[in-house]
Amino acid sequence: MLIWHVSCIKRTETQKDHQTVSVIMRSMGAIDYPVRRPPLRGNVNLFEQILLAVLAGFFIFGLTLAGAFLATRLWYAGRVLPGVSIAGVDVGGLSPHAAAARLVERIDYPHSGKIILRDGERVWVATPGELGLSLDPDASAQAAFRVGRSGPLPGRIKAQVEAMTSGIQLPPVLVLDQRVAYRFLSNIAREIDKPAIDATLSLNGTQVVVTPGQTGRSLDISASLVLITLQLQSLRDGILDLYIHEAAPVILDASAEADLARRILSEPLVLSLPGAEANSAGPWTIQPEQLAQMLTVQRVDTPQGPSYQVGLRQDLMIAYLADLAPKLQRYPQNARFIFNDDTHQLEVIQPSITGRQLDVEKSLRLIQEKIRQGEHAIPLEVMYTDPPVTDKMTGEQLGITELVQATTTYFRGSSSERKQNIRAAAARFHGLLVAPGETFSMAQALGDITLDNGFAEALIIIGGQTIKGVGGGVCQVSTTLFRNVFFAGFPVVERYAHAYRVGYYEQTANGHSDRLAGLDATVFVPLVDFKFTNDTPYWLLMETYVSDTSITWKFYSTKDGRTVEWNTTGPVNRVPPPEPVYRENPDLAKGEIRQVDWAAEGADVTVERTVYKNGAVYFKDTFFTHYEAWANVYEYGPGTELPPPDERR
Question: Which residues are in the YoaR-like putative peptidoglycan binding domain (predicted)?
Answer without folding.
Answer: 124-228, 309-375
